[in-house]
Design goal:
Elements lengths: L1 E4 L8 H14 L4 E5 L5 H7 L10 H8 L16 E2 L5 E4 L5 H10 L5 H9 L5 E5 L6 H9 L2 E6 L3 H20 L5 E7 L7 H12 L13 H9 L3 H4 L4 H28 L1
Parallel strand pairs: 1-5, 1-6, 2-4, 2-5, 6-7
Antiparallel strand pairs: 3-4
């Protein structure tokens, strides 16, 4: 299963959600990969700490080699660009700071399917792949959505986040029609939720009334997440019994349960 965590609004917790779900997946014994397509590299730093700086063989290097003449003859194994973390079963394809500068060349050379091809190969080695993206519908985000099965959209309960959500829905619809008919909006993840405030619940109720798939597991606002970033430790390792950690676990289990039901339903239809 390949999940992209994407929204066009910054500061809503994309990297935190992708990394913490991936860490839980790995802790459950699933071979798990995080692909960091955000030039800021927050996911890479979170999971690799100081090692993320100055790494060779990054996702940037992966895309650069697709532009090489040598790649017409033979391309490097995508596993070359994957780095193990200190957490069992969890690996990262780290970001690179020059990703933005590669976009025009990649677009001009029509390399939009290269990530999909790489994840097809990596999918034989990893049970779950989580892709973190920049808050923009750029070449790399489109590449990720073309390569993915599902998209999770963080929502932090304000009107800007709501407008971004509608933009994401439009982007998913276009890419599904033109490039990836198997792409689905898996759910809207309510993040930094304040249960005692009126506005967040009002916005959630309105989205549900519109028929949008708001996931029932809401992630609370907590300083523990900042502590997790500072320590370079996903919550499942930093504070396994903390309220926010348990909410992440509940979210992960809900996604896994829905996935299992979907596979069972598809098998039933096939038979």
């Amino acid at each position: 299963m390949r999940r992209v965590v994407f929204t066009q609004k910054g500061g809503v917790g994309k990297s935190s959600i992708a990394c913490n779900l991936a860490a839980i997946s790995a802790a459950r014994g699933l071979r798990t990969l995080v692909v960091d397509l955000d030039p800021q590299g927050n996911a890479s730093e979170y999971l690799l700490d100081a090692r993320a700086a100055g790494l060779s063989h990054t996702v940037q290097d992966f895309f650069e080699q697709t532009l090489s003449i040598k790649n017409l003859i033979s391309s490097a194994d995508p596993e070359t660009f994957v780095h193990a973390t200190r957490f069992p079963n969890l690996s990262v394809m780290p970001s690179g700071p020059e990703l933005d500068f590669l976009q025009p060349k990649l677009e001009a050379r029509q390399k939009i399917y290269k990530l999909r091809d790489a994840l097809d190969k990596l999918g034989r080695r990893y049970d779950r792949i989580f892709v973190d993206t920049a808050p923009a519908a750029n070449f790399f985000t489109r590449s990720a959505l073309i390569a993915a099965n599902r998209c999770l959209v963080p929502f932090d309960c304000d009107n800007f986040s709501r407008q971004s959500l509608y933009q994401v829905l439009e982007t998913i619809g276009e890419l599904r029609e033109d490039h990836n008919p198997g792409l689905r909006l898996e759910g809207i993840v309510v993040n930094q939720f304040q249960p005692n405030a009126k506005l967040p619940q009002t916005l959630i109720d309105e989205l549900v009334a519109e028929g949008l798939p708001v996931l029932p597991q809401h992630l609370s606002q907590s300083v523990k997440m900042r502590e997790s970033h500072q320590a370079h430790l996903p919550l499942i390792h930093l504070a396994p019994q903390h309220k926010l950690t348990l909410q992440f676990v509940e979210l992960f289990e809900g996604l896994e349960g829905a996935q299992a039901k979907g596979l069972k339903r598809d098998a039933s239809r096939a038979s």
